[in-house]
Amino acid sequence: MGKLYLKTYQWVLRAVVELLDLFPPRRIDKNEFALRKGTLPEDFKAPDEGTIWVHGASLGEVITLRPFLKELADIYGRQRLVCTATTMDGLRQLQKDEICGFATLLPIELPAFTIPFIERVRPTVMLISETEIWPLLLDTLARKGVPYGIINGRINEKSVRMMRLAWPIFESAVSGIAFAFPQEKQYQRRFKILGIKEERQRQLGCFKYDIAESLPDTTALRRQYGIIDGRQLICFGSTHPGEEALILDALDPLWEKMDATVIIAPRHVKRVHEVEELLRERKIEFIKVSEGASSSARVILVDTMGELRNFYAISSLVFVGGSLIKRGGHNLMEPAAYARPTLTGPHTFNFRYEMMALNRARAIKTVKDSEELRQAITLWLQQPDSYSEMGARARQVLESMAGACHRTVSSLQQLGYLPHV
247 near 234, Cβ under 8 Å? Predict the structure, then answer.
């Protein structure tokens, strides 16, 4: 019965693709559509020993995969790594990072596209970051004898419910999962509900803690962005609709009191024009990074991708967005990697474990609204040393939680999915 449902899903998907062929959406160009059909360069050649296929859905997953990909590249060579992303933003980041030998978009999961792709890529294993269960793709991998599993695993309750409702479609793909490495216990329990037995699971932690890297050349970064030495920077990273207005409300009485440049980095670059309008309405001088950022402006608006961590590295104070509104927050450990004192809003339900650890260590400060944000910034201006100590404690928390990438590689070697080198 499950095969019948899977075949029906395949027919529906094929009909959708044929419609897109006839009436292509304007936002998808021909090159992107070709990549989604599994098209590879004519000169692409997989290494004789096969490739290690690593998949990350979007930009966030790709960034989180960086330390894991670096470790794989150091051990097996970057040419053995083929990486795919579901989104164009994710693909652009993979290409920019140049950690893997080849990067492309994940093919639409019709066998007509995935079988030629798999035969040319010749993967020895597919490693799926977090959780993306593509039933037809994974069924094809199983029939081709390619093992697959989940690394850095996480899954929310909504996804579990959805998959259980459509279980005849997902059953084959889930039952074929050779291994699952959940980040923490709650994800392990949810994978178990889906039928992934405990003996196939290992709780190994989260990749995003493996970013405790050395501080980059901040002088060079300041020069790159046109920011004079000694100038203080306050970075508001990964902001969402509704947050920028709250942030500017908090800053409004402080502009004349603080000798600092404010950086605003919207979570999605496509929203930059919204923030521009907001700044113009309030008559706040700003400059965009693409125009050549400069500390002579009150605000630097980040309209380029993949540079937020650079700004975290040179900032004196960081606010992590998605938290003043009910979005659930974003990665609190990125500023912690540079020992930067960090503020966040009250809505951090996507990062409960991290908040618990940071709060225990007195390594983060939560503000619930514009007024409390203003008070926190004012206190930072008055007591910068106490805030610096908070940042140092955050770095210590991060270091205590790191190691998931190495544990994952070791487990894959122990289980025989990666060779010992």
Answer: no
